[in-house]
Write a structure and sequence with these properties.
Order of helices and strands: HHHHHHHH
Oligomer: single chain
Number of domains: 1
CATH superfamily: Rhomboid-like
Strand content: under 5%
CATH architecture: Up-down Bundle
Number of helices: 8
Radius of gyration: 19 Å
Largest sheet: none
Structural class: mainly alpha
Helix content: 55-70%
Shape: globular
Distance between the termini: 42 Å
Length: 204
């Protein structure tokens, strides 16, 4: 590895740390602010099948019920978020946007009425879905190995997409996971198949 390549990797890593740091800092800042506001910010979450509740698709991932909720989401958000940007830093933004949209809309459409849904767990499950299925869609050695590693480390989280504990938005988990799979399909960089060029040549 040349000196310029090493410097490039260092810059990339610093950018990744800065991106994740900004997202986490925003979550913690909002929770601290919400503490002084008596939880008023939580009303900006997803409220199923209400027009005003649609704003939660944008705001809900950055809001949490309390600091215990935020702490529980912070570590997996950082770890899985970094794995998402491991090959390409810009993937983080694309995956996050796709997951927020699908998780948010799914929750808005199918969650129980008169409830408010907040938290980054839907995004976290989206990262999980993206990382688990990236190897399947890309068929690249590195992506497959990463998918296997994530499966070993975080595969047990998949049960969170099923109805379970009261007060947990399993709909957000489920549709976040689906959003991650969609993102993996849309962003996949398939390994070139030599047979494809042969088939194209045979058409002439």
């Amino acid at each position: 590895m040349g000196n310029s390549e090493a410097k490039g990797l260092v810059r990339e890593f610093k950018a990744q740390v800065a991106i994740l740091g900004c997202f986490v800092a925003l979550m913690w800042s909002l929770e601290i602010l919400d503490l002084f506001l008596g939880g008023a910010l939580n009303s900006l979450g997803i409220i199923p099948r209400t027009v005003i509740g649609l704003r939660g698709i944008l705001f809900a991932p950055f809001l949490h019920g309390n600091f215990a909720h935020l702490i529980a989401n912070t570590v997996p958000f950082i770890v899985l978020g970094w794995f998402v940007m491991l090959f390409r830093t810009r993937d983080f933004f694309s995956v996050t946007a796709i997951v927020m949209l699908i998780s948010g809309l799914g929750t808005w459409l199918f969650a129980s009425p008169f409830t408010v849904h907040i938290g980054a767990s839907g995004v976290i499950f989206g990262y999980l879905g993206f990382l688990l299925f990236r190897g399947y869609f890309e068929r690249r050695f590195g992506s497959i190995v990463l998918s296997l590693i994530i499966g070993l480390l975080y595969g047990g989280l998949i049960w969170g997409v099923l109805p379970g504990q009261i007060g947990i938005s399993w709909q957000g988990h489920l549709f976040g996971f689906i959003g991650g799979i969609v993102a993996a399909r849309l962003l996949a960089r398939r390994k070139p198949n030599p047979l494809d060029s042969v088939n194209r040549m045979s058409r002439f």
